[in-house]
Design goal:
This protein is an alpha/beta fold and 427 residues long. The chain is built from 17 helices and 14 strands. The protein has 2 domains: 186 residues, D-Maltodextrin-Binding Protein, domain 2 (3-Layer(aba) Sandwich); 202 residues, 3-Layer(aba) Sandwich (D-Maltodextrin-Binding Protein, domain 2). The strands form 4 sheets. Strands 1, 2, 3, 6, 13 and 14 form a 6-stranded mixed beta sheet that branches. Strands 8-11-7-12 form a 4-stranded mixed beta sheet, sandwiched between helices.
Length: 427
């Protein structure tokens, strides 16, 4: 009996030891399965970064086997260049945001993971089709939008009323736009100096005048055929209309090639500019200004052969180098869920990229509805081409020559044609 007792005691000790080992092994096994992914945000503000950290906390709570390391890189630090260097060095994040159209540069370089195998069809269908098309390169989906933005026409209700100009409840024609811009350009005190300009614009931004070209049914480059089209008569007609606003009709503030958008925004807020083109974030800022309460509205851009308004997005992409692609996709899907997209848009003022958010209470505001309408009827995106930045530099340089009267519009477009052809020939 004592011998049996000793055996039983040994068995009990062995069992306890085995149980202890098992209890230790379970958390060790769980810890071994935990993966870490990195997420880099291009741009952002302290407020949006705080929201992203809140999102990450909720994601990690729902996915305890995944840890997310987050870093925000301000636009002032040129995040796109940093991303390219990290790709070359093999240290790029698993998931990161970029400003459109930079995702096409990275996709062309083979740096991104296609998302087609990861995204459920129901999720894909919830994004507006123009965003899905925009995020597709050579037939593969390489990105998904975090938010959408589009340029619409800001107008001062009080200035229009004082000049007898109707509010743009529908899109004006080019002829109506010119007529009203002239009426809104005024010498208010009779001293021979213009105090109020009809249209605020700047030659520093292609997005300010490319819409006129697109409204005329053309563009500076035909991307489908990969050919320059700057000397197309319809391009010349559109740019002549724009340059005439500046040089002939003088409905724009002086310093057209140096004035920046922030200065135009300030002039609009001060009642010195009646019309200008800008996005949702500016509308959100103006909506917080007591002095502008009830004084501004949002309308559609003018049209010629069709509607066109410059649109954009920040998008999420997955690195081809990621060693944890399934975890990276889980994070992307969570990040772009309707809940968090709505939270980001509420904070930033931008428009949602998912159709299921149309009925969200926040987006029933008339100003937000106006931007949604503009995106629907004319929103277009900038060139997808990997050489898009080179296109911009060439376009800007030649258009500014015409704005300053150094060249005729036709001369500038002929010279731009040659520059674009040379860019397209480069490997």
């Amino acid at each position: 009996m004592p011998r049996f007792s000793r055996v039983l005691k040994r068995f009990a000790l062995v069992s306890v030891a085995c149980l202890a080992i098992m209890l230790i092994a379970v958390p060790l096994a769980s810890a071994a399965k935990k993966v870490t992914i990195t997420f880099w945000q291009a741009g952002g503000t302290p407020e949006t970064s705080a929201l992203v950290r809140q999102l990450i906390d909720e994601f990690e709570a729902a996915n305890p086997d995944i840890q997310v390391n987050f870093q925000a890189i301000p636009w002032a630090e040129d995040p796109h260049t940093k991303f390219q260097a990290a790709i070359v060095g093999g240290t790029i994040a698993d998931v990161f945001t970029v400003g459109d159209p930079f995702e096409h540069v990275l996709a062309a370089a083979g740096a991104l993971e296609p998302l087609d195998a990861y995204i459920p069809q129901a999720v894909k269908n919830d994004f507006y089709p123009q965003f899905i098309e925009r995020c597709t390169y050579n037939g593969k989906l390489y990105a998904l939008p975090w938010f959408g933005t589009v340029r619409a026409m800001f107008y001062r209700k009080d200035l229009l009323a004082a000049a007898g100009v109707p509010e743009p409840t529908t899109s004006w024609t080019w002829e109506e736009f010119l007529t009203y811009a002239k009426k809104l350009t005024r010498d208010l005190n009779g001293d021979g100096v213009i105090d109020q300009y009809g249209f605020g614009t700047s030659g520093r931004y292609v997005s300010q005048y490319q819409p006129f070209v697109r409204q005329n049914g053309v563009d500076f480059v035909d991307e489908e055929r990969n050919v320059a089209t700057a000397n197309n008569p319809a391009v010349i007609e559109a740019m002549q209309f724009y340059v005439d606003l500046i040089r002939t009709h003088k409905v724009t503030p002086p310093g057209i090639t140096t004035i920046n958008l922030q200065e135009i925004q300030k002039m609009f807020a001060e009642g010195k500019v009646a019309l200008f083109f800008d996005g949702e974030d500016t509308a959100a800022t103006f909506s917080k200004e007591p002095a502008l309460a009830g004084k501004f509205g949002i309308g559609l851009l003018p049209h010629k052969k069709g509607h066109a308004a410059y649109a954009g997005a920040d998008v999420l992409v997955m690195s081809k180098q990621s060693k944890n692609k399934e975890a990276a996709w889980k994070f992307i899907e969570f990040f772009l869920s309707p809940k968090w997209m709505a939270e980001y848009c509420k904070l930033s003022g931008f428009s949602p990229a998912r159709k299921s958010l149309v009925g969200h209470e926040y987006f029933k505001d008339p100003i937000k509805q106006a931007f949604a309408k503009q995106l629907e009827v004319g929103g277009y995106f900038y060139f997808k081409h990997p050489k898009a930045s080179s296109f911009s530099s060439a376009i800007r340089a030649e258009v500014q020559e015409a704005m300053e009267g150094k060249k005729t519009v036709k001369q500038a477009m002929d010279d731009l044609q040659k520059k674009l052809e040379e860019i397209l020939k480069q490997p």
